[in-house]
Amino acid sequence: MARSKDFDEEEVLKKAVCTFWHKGYNATSMQDLVDALGISRSSLYDTYGDKHTLYIKALEHYQNSGSNHMCDIANSPIPAKQAIRQMLEYTATALLSDAQQKGCFMVNAEVEVAPHDTEVRDIVCKTVQRTEESFYIAIKKGQENGEITSKQDARALARFLYNAVKGIQVLAKSSTDKAFFDDVINTTLSVLD
């Protein structure tokens, strides 16, 4: 008879995200994970297999929480420009509230691991597509109701906005100046007029 787990897998994944995010994939040892997750080494191996599998699950968990929130904003009944502003501000606020300035976990994975790991690269690409699609949905809605210029292609604008998000994610590792990010957001939004 299989033994039931005596830990909450959701909580363990959240702790794994924090550990990998803080230390990076390569610098995180199995002992670091055992210590941070509060489960035994055997439970870690029985549940997740190995460090790489746990890292993939942690990335997917992070991806789903962020992508779902962006999609919810894009599909909300608020005006399109307001939705886009909220998506940009959500990104900046989440990063600026981190006293450790870890940056974006997904961007960190993109830089550290994705160049050498197709599984991680696929997760990163899926995140890019989901975020771009959220912007596209809001832009199309805004173009259809005349709130956003139709002079620019909706897909090109979505990619431009995603590029602004990526810049915010990278800069948050070295800057905590909210006014700086407000300027970036306001200038980025000006292309929608």
Fold and architecture overview:
This protein is mostly helical and about 190 residues long. Helices cover about 70% and strands about 0% of the residues. The longest helix has 27 residues, at about 120-145. The model has no long low-confidence stretch (mean pLDDT about 90).
Q: What kind of assembly state do the chains in view correspond to?
A: single chain
Low-pLDDT stretches: none
Task: Report the portion of residues in β strands.
Answer: under 5%
The tally of beta strands, per DSSP, is 0
- The run of helices and strands is HHHHHHHHH
How many H/I helical runs?
9
Structural class, by secondary structure, is mainly alpha
User: How big is the Rg?
Assistant: 19 Å
Task: Offer a quick outline of the entry.
This protein has helices spanning 9-23, 30-37, 41-48, 51-74, 80-96, 105-112, 118-144, 154-171, 178-189. The chain has 193 residues and is an all-alpha fold.
Question: How is the topology of this model organized?
Answer:
Layout: H1 9-23, H2 30-37, H3 41-48, H4 51-74, H5 80-96, H6 105-112, H7 118-144, H8 154-171, H9 178-189
Helix pairs in contact: 1-2, 1-4, 4-7, 5-7, 5-8, 5-9, 6-7, 7-8, 8-9
Question: Which properties best describe this structure?
Answer:
mainly alpha; 193 residues; single chain; 71% helix
